[in-house]
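Box 3.1. Reading complex inputs
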Amino acid sequence: MRSTMMQVPLNLCHFLERAGRLFAGVEIVSRLPDKSLHRSNYGEFYRRSRLLAEALEGAGLRKGDRVATLMWNHYAHFETYFGVIASGGVMHTLNLRLAPEDIGYIANHAQDRVIIVDDVLLPLFEQFKAQTRIERVIVVPLTGKPVPEGYLNYEDFLATATGDWDYPEMDENDPVAMCYTSGTTGRPKGVVYSHRSQVLHSLVQCLPDAVDMSGKDVMLPVVPMFHANAWGIPYAAAMIGCKLVFPGPYLHPDDLLPLFESEKVTVSCGVPTIWLGMAQVIARDRERWRCLAGMRLTVGGAAVPESLIRAFDGFGIEIIQGWGMTETSPIATIAKTTQLQPDITEDERFATMASQGYPLPLVDLRIVGDAGEQPWDGKSVGEIQVHGPWITGSYHDLPHSEDSFTADGWLRTGDVAAVQPLGFVKITDRTKDLIKSGGEWISSVDLENAIMGHPAVAESAVIAVAHPKWSERPLAVVVPKSGASVSAEELRAFLEGRFARWAIPDAFVFVDAIPRTSTGKFLKSRLRDQFRDWSWEPAA
Ligand code: ADP
């Protein structure tokens, strides 16, 4: 017997058509470099995305050709998310916070043929263009200034299209977009997404038990559109038609908070460092920001300290932690309480929200240690391995990457965790961040989250530093809150009772700021370099 269902390939262009037909009047707001607000809607987004597709096709783009973007979050970047795909091309978001030579390496490795670049980012492009094989440069005139000689104006380029155009043939497994890992763990590696992977990711991402996004939401993605597909928000937004508010280049709390208020934002997303800063600003004037109560923040990319979740809870704002990677499209787990925890206490609720959560539907997850697959008992620790329709099974054009995958085809994530019986994942570290002291593993994540729970601490990162007797010992780098002060003795006393004595850092170093990665996470490799020659005298 055969199913009687139609065989319909999953296709992101369906979301584009749907957005044009059903959500044309829904607003899309973008902050421009001069801080003014550009107002558009899904009707314009639909029309212009299709014009871009037609213009790219007319300019000779062939199926599978890569079109790079070097852009902030705004309406035109959103158009490229669909316009490039609709033309049969592959949208390749370049991370504008990387060093120019690294962007050049990535654009060359991906064989990008076309680039669409914000006019304000042209000076950055000029620094790496010689490394690439880019033939056509299309400039988005965000400032309204004339586009330099030799480059195409994005608006003029769209004007070469007629609107009388139809989509090319597409298969659900065709490549649609690519993104390189940010290289925190070595040379950047390219991940290539498909219609199928991103349609399924969008559907699951919007579930109430996942990010819980609906058409009634107003979404402001703080996460850059070059960081793992802006966590899938552009695709999901076109599917559900929620109002979008793009922050442009301005990601400081003083810029974001008024935008949250004036545009009535209901949901936002970004890495923990963004919200650590914002919590301090809100705490200084809670009355002023009471209007934000009821908002949700999806937070991921690094572990979310429980103290941060509690702080936002105090402001009436819910934090939803997700875990994932560029390789996983990116969301693979989400932290929400379940019906199997009917009588949990307040503390247990916060502990659940501070875990990385349970796997999303269609994602299989296992923990593998030296002795093989580990039980879900909340104690046994191993590497997280994942498998599913939006998890990459290989890297683009990268021989010898077998180490990243198991013989039975699962992705090795390099994240170390235990899983509780209900399926909640608790990450202790990335493999390379683990601290091994006197033969015992110490979790840097647990320590830094506890230290950030101290009322005088704004940020903390804990790293392993070589030690003559214990092989490695933890060192805590701490940023005090502005106007506050705290001593090493106070922090040591704060941690006593919460951690075994041998797990407490031997040194606390106070700094003004912790270096960030290109996606805003704590850059622990830089700290390890900085403290490589640390002297432990008197020996711990
Ligand atoms: P990079 O690997 O260069 O940092 P990604 O943005 O793809 O680039 O980062 C994926 C990694 O981020 C994961 O492997 C994990 O170590 C970390 N990560 C993501 N979300 C979380 C989370 N909620 N808790 C802890 N770590 C996280």
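In summary: Residues 391 and 513 are 34 Å apart (CA to CA).
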